[in-house]
């Protein structure tokens, strides 16, 4: 009986601790919808050759910017 009680208390502690930790992690690191709507990615640096041909681009954030209106809901 005492062993069962210890196991139940231990499992509940782990469960509530995980839930509290998950809530804190999500609430501190996930931006709000309003912040995401205001997001403007940096342009980066473009590298041109002597004859003005684009030969490279350096960016902190890799990828292609897609406006949120262009992303399908499904």
Secondary structure layout:
Layout: H1 2-29, H2 33-37, E1 45-48, E2 54-58
Antiparallel strand pairs: 1-2
Overall number of strands: 2
Task: Supply Rg.
Answer: 24 Å
Mean pLDDT: 86
Describe the global form: elongated
Structural class of the helix and strand makeup?
A: alpha+beta
Helicity level: 40-55%
Our count of helices gives 2
Distance between the termini: 51 Å
Largest sheet: 2 strands, antiparallel
Order of helices and strands: HHEE
The stretches of 5 or more residues where confidence is low (pLDDT under 50) are none
**DSSP strand (E) fraction?**
5-15%
Domain module tally: 1
Main β-sheet, spatial strand arrangement: 1-2
What features would you describe in this structure?
There is one protein chain. This protein is α+β, with helices and mostly antiparallel strands. The protein has one domain (2-65). Helices cover 45% and strands 12% of the residues. The protein has helices spanning 2-29, 33-37, and strands at residues 45-48, 54-58. It has a two-stranded antiparallel sheet with strand order 1-2. A hairpin with a 5-residue loop joins β1 (45-48) and β2 (54-58). The chain is elongated. The chain starts with a helix and ends in a 16-residue tail after the last strand.
Brief overview, please?
By secondary structure, this protein is α+β, with helices and mostly antiparallel strands. The protein is 45% helix and 12% strand.
Can you give keywords for this protein?
45% helix, two-stranded antiparallel sheet, 2 strands, 74 residues, alpha+beta, 12% strand, 2 helices, single chain
């Amino acid at each position: 009986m005492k062993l069962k009680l210890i196991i139940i208390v231990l499992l509940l502690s782990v469960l509530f601790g995980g839930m509290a930790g998950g809530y804190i992690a999500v609430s501190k690191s996930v931006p709000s919808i309003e912040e995401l709507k205001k997001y403007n990615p940096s342009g980066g640096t473009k590298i041109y050759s002597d004859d003005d041909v684009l030969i490279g681009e350096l960016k902190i954030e890799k990828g292609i910017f897609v406006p949120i209106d262009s992303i399908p809901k499904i």
